[in-house]
Amino acid sequence: SGASLRYSTGTGGEGSEGEGAGLASSESGGSGFSLAAAALPERRRPGGGRPRYEVVRELGAEEVRWFYREDRKTWKPFIGYDSLRIELAFRALGTGGSGDPRDGEAAVEPVCVRSGLYEVDVASAESYPVYWNQTEKIPVMRGQWFIDGTWQPLEEEESNLIEQEHLNRFKGQQLQENFDMEVSKPVDGKEAIHSLKLSRNHVDWHSVDEVYLYSDATTSKIARTVTQKLGFSKASSSGTRLHRGYVEEATLEDKPPQTSHIVFVVHGIGQKMDQGRIIKNTAMMRDTARKIEEKYFSNLATHVEFLPVEWRSKLTLDGDTVDSITPDKVRGLRDMLNSSAMDIMYYTSPLYRDELVKGLQQELNRLYTLFCSRNPEFEEKGGKVSIVSHSLGCVITYDIMTGWNPVRLYEQLLQKEEEELEEHWMSYEEQCLLEELYITKQRLREIEERLSELKASTISKPPVLKFKVENFFCMGSPLAVFLALRGIRPGNSGSQDHILPRTICNRLLNIFHPTDPVAYRLEPLILKHYSNISPVQIHWYNTANPLPYEHMKPSFLNPTKEATSVTDSESVSTVPSPTTSPVMVRRHYGESITNIGKASILGAASIGKGLGGMLFSRFGRSSATTPQTLEAGKDGAEGDDKKASSVGTPPLPRSSSGFLEPTVELEHRIDFELREGLVESRYWSAVTSHTAYWSSLDIALFLLTFMYKHDQEDTDNSNLDAV
């Protein structure tokens, strides 16, 4: 990697050599080429013109620009830092104008690009992702000659021919001094001083830096794409103006900020049906977050990176057994349910649950280890990790973090049965046998405990996850209903520790769209009376000076009426537990609950029969059910359903404004709700809302607000100190 690049610039016709920067392989998180700090000069090229008195010479690495193309769209330029390093790797192969031919046979390591998410193989002119698998390779292209106006590169083959011809004819000649003026001059009456015939086009040089491409076929792609016209001459009416060298020269300063926070994005159900979906969804979230970062967090020198966690496709589970027992009628619908709803059934199966948990756990640890190996400074500088999970992914992630296992529930159930058995009348012989069984079990537990202690002293068990989770964001999450069905009931402390200890995860945040049929609230599982307190409304991304979330006061869902207290028998006849009631029921939209329910069932269809039935039982109520009875039902049947006494929420002290007076409150709010669109159809949004989180600018700002919280505070404090 000792090759270096020399390039010459002329000043007043005199050539002077400048030392380029050498190659290295330790930048941008992994192997690849990078440039030393004493790099190439920064120059902006207005209108494609060059600095005055410059002579024609071979293009410098900073003038060439590399491009990539995804999803067969237009070519996108790499940032300057990436393009310089790709160009140096290209020249190290001995194929570039300034490369050393002796390096032609030497293998060149891949170049890390796009914030370390991708690598470029210069030899094959392809790019591929580092952290996930992708079937389609991303083509890359070296740009030397560019179309005026759009600055799209000419195809590499044509570009090479034009560049070779240009150097053969004009190398060493001085360019025009007044490059700003000549752009606007028409080329009427100017004869071409040189021409080059290509397969479907020809190029005319009207002067050293007035070059036009003419199409010899009217259907030429280039002729169709060019929209900028220069005058009315032959050159301007049918020709495309070309520029040699990119509009902006590549500099090392054009470099992405260092990653201080990584976010693992975990998918829910349905990935078997569309295996690349989480990669596309994460890309949408990443692109949206980039826009928000540029708008609101550009003063910070760090940035947040999003990595997709695709855990489903590697699992074998039952192989093709379920497919083999699926009837052929309505096969399309059956396949959709097998690919989506089956994941919920797999997760509730004792046979396959562990495989799903281990699949996600191993993928999270693999990604973290790989990221740290390519970014050794991440841990040293206190880099943080957050997780964004969607749908069923929230439940699996939660179980991994907490180590929850259904075996514990089974053991508790057995213990309960034993206690009940002791209360029944039994013969003397049964009592003796039961006592003997109890002593034997006690002895067995003691032996197991001693054995586990011995194992713990000799073998230190590695942590389930190799990192501490800073923030756990749930999106469209059914986690609350899973916890409720596992026996979690509200407590009397407002701490998150009731469902997720802060030692495991610093902050839990539950995000949902108001019409998402799969989403459930978590706050009423911690404090019961929060079933009548509205979730925090997520700010629109373009809100001017929004109130910080920690300063927003809790308010009633319906300030016009008091909470009521009812008995279990009454509540059971109306609606189920408030902790498991979907968020939509709590909102009084002025529509029949039945209508909203029907729309929600449509949205639940993709989640499968099990959840669909559960949702129908929640939503599909007669329109005769009044808001008053709904409100009453919300406050019953949540706690211990054995008791027949009043278990509803007592009236809460509140002010005339509808805000709560000081009482037992949550340490931090957990439920955050997206605002409904002004023209959004609630029926349609019930179908689409479960997947509407990925491209939301509101959610991107919300996520970054919490992840940049400490960085923003540090910056503000340092600014105050400076003052």
Automatic annotation (TrEMBL):
Alphabetical list of Pfam families matching this protein: DDHD
UniProt biased composition (Gly residues): 10-21
Ranges for region Disordered: 1-51, 560-582, 626-659
Gene Ontology MF annotations: metal ion binding; phospholipase activity
GO cellular component, one term: cytoplasm
Source taxon at top rank: Eukaryota
Domain DDHD: 465-709
Extent of Low complexity compositional bias: 22-40, 564-582
Comp. bias regions, Basic and acidic residues: 41-51, 632-644
Alphabetical list of InterPro entries matching this protein: DDHD_dom, PA-PLA1
Family classification: Belongs to the PA-PLA1 family.
Protein name per UniProt: DDHD1 Phospholipase
Organism: Ceyx cyanopectus (Indigo-banded kingfisher)
